[in-house]
């Protein structure tokens, strides 16, 4: 199950290498050794950092695991010199990792690093490879989570052939209660635990009784769902919309995971064969993933002439590594727009196939605060080669950074290691891309501020964001509803689930939020 919220942006990531790297160690930091004289095991000495490869996978000694995290962070973290060098002894491994990041603020006063987390390696590998996770197959939108305000949990979309979809629970349905506990009014720890246990199951087979109010229904109904292993379908709803002035392609793209390559290839082939005149790319729930997939999609949208010898993204690491990648040890070079299949999953699509192209000069993108990382890099890269990007919806999450998921002792860690810029050298959108009728900043994109419309199916031409894109296409301006719904900032439609983050299942809630952005090599 996935939960959308505004302030849990940390889980939203995008990946920035062609292939996943899960290394146990490799680089070295300043200093040759952090062992005390005469000691048989590594010890913490302020300011001294052992080569983290010498500390890797020593899983029976928690202190060594913490020292590995410390040296790895000092070597590869983008803002390594802003980490306070603390003695790890008083902390658990998980607690210590949470401290190995900057506490500094951005120029706009927000935390500089909102993207620091870890998860079990087995879970990460399953999620990265196929988008698989335990749940019911529905992604949720949470509003009004503040204390004293009636909460509302609404289904944003579901995956096909899952417990939720098979029970007829679809976009717009409101979750009224979970195992008898009211979602709107729960305020004690036992009730909150029940909500979390039901909304975020951590084992297959768990049965939960939901009371739901379907979209436009006058009465509630009760359904019992059994949690299973849900495999994400990242590319959905591809269609051609015939208008009075040409064909418009529509594509719902939910995640840059490995299995999306075949879905994107098929979808863009369909739209290319239909000779669409414009594209509406719905990435409102796409939190990121493999940057290489974003590069491929950028190529398929813009075509060969627009992308030849142009940069999709140029990455840079911390000042210890001006010329090489500290993880791969390769010389830094720009990522191009990729014109062939990579074959992430050769059973679905082999490598080396020429990708289909639409050869468009503009693209309409539908966004929310759940639009993050690789999705933002795609927008930035297209703007960098003068493809007109028109943004309908909400301000994106703001993540021009990336990382290589790195495993040690059965846990995979994600820490910011690089930042990226487009062909024009722009990459400062840490507060997100902002739709604007009159853009004046580089991070402001021509378009319309609109709230997500949970009252219509995705791909329905009456759905607010898609309808606005079609209106803008015909009139070169926002519909009247856009100005009425404009908000500043435009993030409040996704409210931090504080009632869920206050209990012992905090990490599980965050874990399920991350499913929104199935990762991969991170950007």
CATH-defined architecture of the domain at 235-400 and 421-485: Alpha-Beta Complex
CATH class of the domain at 235-400 and 421-485: Alpha Beta
Mean pLDDT, all residues: 84
Tell me the major beta sheet.
Answer: 7 strands, mixed
CATH topology of the domain at 235-400 and 421-485: 2-enoyl-CoA Hydratase, Chain A, domain 1
Considering the protein shown, what is the CATH homologous superfamily of the domain at 235-400 and 421-485?
2-enoyl-CoA Hydratase, Chain A, domain 1
Which geometry do the CA atoms define?
Answer: globular
Got a strand count? 23
The number of helices is 13
Rounded Rg: 23 Å
N-end to C-end Cα span: 24 Å
Strand content: 15-25%
Helix content: 10-25%
Pfam families: Peptidase_S41
Protein name: S41 family peptidase
Keywords: Signal
InterPro entries: ClpP/crotonase-like_dom_sf, PDZ_sf, Tail-specific_protease
Explained architecture:
The chain has 523 residues and is an alpha/beta fold. Among the domains are: 134-230, Pdz3 Domain; 235-400 and 421-485, 2-enoyl-CoA Hydratase, Chain A, domain 1. 23% of the residues lie in helices and 21% in strands. The protein contains 13 helices and 23 strands. It has helices at residues 62-76, 93-99, 121-130, 163-166, 189-199, 260-273, 291-302, 304-307, 374-384, 464-475, 480-485, 498-501, 506-514, and strands spanning 2-4, 117-120, 133-135, 138-143, 152-158, 174-178, 181-182, 207-213, 221-226, 228-230, 235-243, 246-253, 278-282, 311-316, 335-336, 362-367, 388-393, 401-402, 406-408, 411-414, 418-421, 434-436, 444-449. Strands 1, 4, 5, 6, 7, 8 and 9 form a seven-stranded mixed β-sheet that branches. The protein has a seven-stranded mixed β-sheet with strand order 11-12-13-16-17-23-22, sandwiched between helices. A four-stranded antiparallel β-sheet has the order 15-14-21-18. α6 (260-273) packs parallel to α7 and α7 (291-302) packs parallel to α9. 51% of the residues are buried. The model is unreliable at 1-38 and 486-523 (pLDDT under 50).
């Amino acid at each position: 199950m996935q939960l959308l919220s505004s302030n849990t942006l940390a889980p939203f990531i995008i990946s920035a290498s062609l292939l996943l790297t899960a290394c146990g160690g490799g680089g070295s930091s300043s200093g040759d050794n952090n062992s005390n004289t005469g000691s048989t095991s590594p010890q913490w000495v302020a300011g001294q950092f052992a080569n983290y490869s010498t500390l890797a996978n020593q899983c029976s000694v928690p202190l060594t695991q913490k020292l590995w995290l410390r040296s790895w962070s000092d070597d590869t973290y983008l803002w390594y010199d802003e980490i306070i060098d603390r003695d790890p002894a008083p902390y658990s491994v998980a607690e210590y990792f949470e401290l190995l990041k900057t506490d500094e603020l951005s120029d706009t006063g927000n935390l500089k690093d909102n993207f620091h987390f870890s998860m079990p390696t087995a879970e990460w590998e399953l999620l990265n490879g196929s988008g698989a996770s335990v749940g019911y197959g529905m992604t949720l939108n949470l509003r009004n989570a503040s204390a004293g305000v009636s909460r509302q949990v609404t289904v944003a979309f579901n995956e096909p052939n899952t417990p939720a979809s098979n029970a007829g629970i679809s976009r717009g349905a409101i979750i009224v209660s979970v195992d008898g506990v009211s979602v709107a009014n729960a305020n004690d720890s036992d009730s909150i635990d029940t909500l979390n246990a039901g909304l975020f199951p951590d084992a297959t087979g768990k049965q939960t009784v939901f009371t739901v109010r379907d979209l436009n229904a006058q009465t509630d109904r009760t359904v019992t769902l059994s949690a299973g292993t849900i495999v994400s379908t990242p590319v959905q709803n591809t269609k051609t919309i015939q208008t009075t002035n040409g064909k418009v392609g529509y594509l719902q793209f939910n995640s840059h995971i490995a299995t999306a390559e075949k879905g994107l290839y098929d979808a863009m082939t369909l739209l290319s064969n239909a000779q669409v005149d414009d594209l509406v790319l719905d990435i409102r729930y796409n939190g990121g993933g493999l940057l290489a997939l974003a590069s491929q999609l950028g190529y398929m949208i813009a075509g060969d002439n627009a992308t030849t010898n142009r940069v999709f993204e140029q990455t840079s690491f911390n000042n210890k590594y001006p010329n090489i990648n500290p993880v791969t040890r390769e010389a830094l070079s720009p990522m191009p727009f990729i014109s062939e299949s990579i074959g992430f999953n050769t059973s679905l699509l082999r490598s080396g196939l020429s990708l289909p192209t639409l050869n468009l000069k503009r693209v309409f993108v539908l966004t929310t605060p759940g639009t993050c990382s690789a999705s933002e890099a795609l927008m930035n890269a297209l703007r960098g080669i003068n493809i007109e990007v028109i943004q309908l919806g909400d301000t994106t999450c703001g993540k021009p950074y990336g990382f290589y998921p790195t495993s040690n002792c059965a846990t995979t860690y994600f820490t910011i290691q690089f930042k990226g810029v487009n062909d024009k050298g722009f990459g400062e959108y840490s507060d997100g891309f902002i739709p604007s009728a009159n853009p004046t900043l580089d991070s402001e994109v021509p378009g319309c501020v609109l709230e997500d419309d949970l009252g219509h199916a995705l791909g329905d031409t009456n759905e607010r964001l898609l309808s606005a894109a079609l209106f803008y296409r015909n009139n070169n301006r926002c519909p009247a509803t856009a100005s009425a719904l404009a908000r500043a900032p435009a993030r409040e439609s996704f409210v931090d689930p504080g009632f869920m983050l206050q209990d012992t299942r905090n990490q599980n809630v965050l874990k399920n939020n991350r499913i929104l952005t199935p990762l991969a090599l991170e950007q």
